[in-house]
Amino acid sequence: MPYGLRIVGSSGAVQIDQFYRNLMLRTVATATTSSPDKDDYQTFTEYPKNGYSYMDAAPPSSPETPLVFFSADAYTGLSDSGFLVTNKARGSTSKLAVFDTPLPLPSPLNKWGLVVRTAAGVVTYYSGYRYLRVHQVLTGSDYVANPINLSLPTNRKWGFCCFKWAGRTRMDDDRAYDDIGSNLRFYRIRREIMGLRLSGGVLTSIDMSYMDDDDYAFPDMAYDHQDSVDRSYAVIIADMTHVPEW
């Protein structure tokens, strides 16, 4: 690179140059939890009476490869259906940060700042955007056998993204079909997922278990205890200190 700009960190590694590529912060949303709680009919003792709650962030404009980060102020994890599940009560709020591919440069452009381009003129960095700062990527083969217990600096703000689902789905026998003389039974899916919480600077994980809202009618014993298990995990830990609203 005979001409151009290169920003080097204290370790000597190149941080920003013409090859820089990263996701930018599109939005910080306050999500209100909705609930799969079952108040009217409940047969599974494993399902907590207060239940778990779903929460989701509205997708950014022109979504391409969005990553959703949560604050883990309560145990939160990713379900196999793509929803975030938390053990906060229904109607609670939680912060979600959505990162996606950078938008085109704003117009008019702020006269103060820095824009880095390739030799062909393609923008690779703009100082007016807030980019994803990856602190660490946690991976493991089984969060139940080896729960996460990680200390993080308390003078920083952190966000967490479950890059993949980790857990188990199981079809459990719920109750007899209502019609007299039928050999059908109702089955309901029990879902187990890895939940993360940050408290006192320590990130921990648990196995969160909850039931689906709906029953499915099948012949007796046809799907009893059908399992799908994958407890391997990949968690992106992002430093969110540069985001005041986090």
UniProtKB/TrEMBL annotation:
Domain of life of the source: Bacteria
Protein name: Uncharacterized protein
